[in-house]
Design a protein that fits this description.
single chain; 156 residues; 7 helices; 2 strands
């Protein structure tokens, strides 16, 4: 069974967004500077920034003082906004809508499990904003879940 996985693209997108939020007072930030500050391959970052721009999460400015900046304030952009932009739905089963998915016999409740998983991820990713990450002030329910993970000896 494959684990739920955060792609490199999603990781890079979140890191770029947080760096843009942190550098908001400096005006537009070049892709080269973002790549250097976050250790992201520049070519890959250009692809990620293009997707974020098409989704109106970042905007770009051309010219010698050009670069990228957040389209909206960091407190209005959730992690879910970014993740859905670069990777699609938070939980996806066979590229099928969970509403139309069905299983026969004793597996019939599996759809409910997938729905619960999607809601659980939403509870975290729609609650945390880019500003929360930037300031390090995560919502308490998210901090409690992270603490619960730290106490779990399995860590798998």
């Amino acid at each position: 069974m494959r684990r739920v996985r955060v792609s490199s693209k999603a990781d890079y997108a979140l890191r770029a967004m947080v760096q843009l939020a942190a550098d908001t007072d400096d005006g537009p930030v070049t892709a080269t500077r973002l790549a250097d500050e976050q250790g992201i391959p520049l070519k890959f970052l250009h692809t990620v920034l293009s997707e974020l721009r098409r989704a109106r999460l970042v905007r770009s400015t051309r010219g010698p003082d050009g670069g990228f900046e957040l389209w909206r304030p960091a407190h209005e952009i959730t992690l879910a906004d970014v993740l859905r932009t670069v990777d699609g739905p938070l939980v996806n089963v066979h590229d099928t809508s969970l509403v139309t998915l069905s299983y026969p016999g004793p597996a019939r409740r599996l759809r409910d499990v997938w729905m619960a998983a999607r809601v659980s991820l939403r509870d975290v990713f729609e609650r945390v904003t880019v500003a929360d990450l930037m300031t390090g002030q995560l919502p308490e329910p998210v901090t409690e879940l992270a603490d619960r993970y730290r106490r779990d000896v399995r860590h798998t």
